[in-house]
Amino acid sequence: MKRTTLYAIIGAFAFGSMGCQDDFLSQKPVGAYSIANVATRAGIQQALIGAYSQLNGTRDWAAYGMNTPGMAMAEMMGGNAHKGSTLTDQAWMNFMVRYEVNTNSAGTNFRYLYNAVFLCNTVLTVLPQVTELSTEEAAKIEAEARFLRGHYYFLLKRWYKHIPWIESTTEFRIPNTDESGNYVNIWPQIQADFEFARKNLPQTQSDLGRPNKWAAEAYYAKVLIYRASEGDLPNGFNEALQVLDDVMANGVTSKGEKYQLEENFHYNFDVTRENGPESVFAVQHSANDGTNSIDNGNQEIRGASGKNPQSPGWGRGSGFYTPSQWFVDHFRVDGGGLPYLDMYETNPNSVKNDDGLRSSDPFEPETAPLDPRLDWSVGRRGIPFLDFGINPGADWVYTPIESGPYIQKKGHIRNDQDGIYVMPGQAYNALNVNIIRYADVILYAAEMEARVGSLEKAREYVNKIRSRMAQNSESPDHWVQNIDGTGPAANYRIGLYPAGHPAFSNQEAALRTILFERNLELGLEGGHRFFDLIRFGLDEELLNEYIQHESPKRSIIEGAVYSRMPDMILPIPQTVIDNSMVDGVPTLKQNPGY
């Protein structure tokens, strides 16, 4: 990694007064500063804002899925979505979704995230030189910077695994191996950053985009879970459960509201309700905010650009990131409203779709029972799409042959919000992206209970998530409704797992059930799916099932094969290894299998 590249990023610092919620991330960047400029009360805050700004990725490539938090690509590689668009558009992504990544096809994310780490390290390096701060103020700034650094390193660790820990702002050629040539393990340093953050962040924050103590607690538990899943922390599951119990019992949002599930599932994707009681830590976005720029907008989630300019996909990318049939089929339920956990073994019938049909061709949507979360997550033909009207199918899909018949829904704002929460005719809206929401915390707790042997408690937590969609089912704001007011738009049904159900009869069954339930609740958001499959040790089995089922419909993945090693880890970009040379010898060792 070239030092000149890293130093250029310091120009992300910004001036301006800091308001509440999204405002402190909506300031225009200015030029680079010397240490003397930064080592003041105002300067160190602007340096910290520079570190926050990296949460949003960069406009040039963020929309294609390798941005922070890498949401779209993790969902694509986890089988929930297709690349979409055309085979020649962003062709490097073809290698990713076929699990044929090479050392030249996945480099942008690596460099970007280390640049983000550099901005955090700049804050931490300069902070001791700022004499205007009280001890408490300095500790809070350090805690925020270390929270952000822990987050960026967490993303790097999940994607690339064998990476160096860099906390200097002057030396970057640091090896990722020890003196014996073994890869170093930076999990302890990542955990230490969140440990400091959870002990020094305040309970509430005036700027809601800043993490509080409870966001740090939840993220700390997440790190413990990942470490334990890799066999790196023997008692990690038990410790994580203790932390999660504390978060569920006592945790509050940055504005002091007790954590709880939103009344309605889709409120989590409503721009007018963001930073609500379910938001633990979210990337803050703003649009049409007076800056005359789209740089602060939601760049992570892109829907399908429609040929019809009035479609919900208008201007939001050339058909990238489209839900797969495999993902949609997770939402099929039996007569009791419970999912087919074996996917196609009990019920081989996919959800009816209009794949290959024109919008002018006749089509009737699925009449079999479905989990109501499907139509808040996926746009499908014959079902109302927010306030845009009935989805007509192919006319709203940019490239139906490559993309399939669906468009994603969680990242869209309403039609009547155009010009308010998005600049007219632009692609980027003001909708936040949840990195951790409270439903995620509850499902982590369910998983931990199952892993320590408390299967009944695990069932209780899963039912708590499911019951949100089961209750108030008659409310017109709860399930997607027909436009004419005649009731639900599909045959929605959702039930709770009764005591003694086979899904929780043993630990293996319970964990498979929880993995399935995580996808129903969290699919197409946050980039959880690919890494969940790896953590549960089911990536090779389920991703090859996905390929087998989906490849006859989408030629882009035809003939693909997923192998746990090396496909669970991305290669370190070759350009980065080349730039790590010292006396003609690279200090970075490539990941196994590349």
Attribute tags:
single chain, 594 residues, mainly alpha, two-stranded antiparallel ribbon
- Which stretches are low in confidence, meaning pLDDT under 50 for 5 or more residues running? 1-32, 59-67
Task: Summarize the helix and strand pattern as letters.
Answer: HHHHEHHHHHHEEHHEHEEHHHHHHHEE
Rg is: 23 Å
Mean pLDDT: 88
Measured as a percent range, the helix fraction is: 25-40%
Indicate the overall shape.
Answer: globular
Which sheet architecture does the biggest sheet show? Answer: 2 strands, antiparallel
Number of strands: 8
User: In which order are the strands of the major sheet placed?
Assistant: 1-3
Total of DSSP H or I helical runs spanning 4+ residues = 20
- Terminus-to-terminus distance: 19 Å
- The secondary-structure class comes to mainly alpha
Structural write-up:
The chain has helices at residues 3-8, 35-38, 41-53, 71-77, 92-97, 108-126, 135-160, 187-200, 213-229, 236-250, 325-329, 374-377, 400-403, 438-451, 455-470, 507-522, 529-535, 539-550, 564-567, 574-579, and strands spanning 81-84, 279-283, 320-323, 378-379, 407-408, 433-437, 581-582, 585-586. With 594 residues, the protein is mainly alpha-helical. Mean pLDDT is 88; it is low at 1-32 and 59-67.
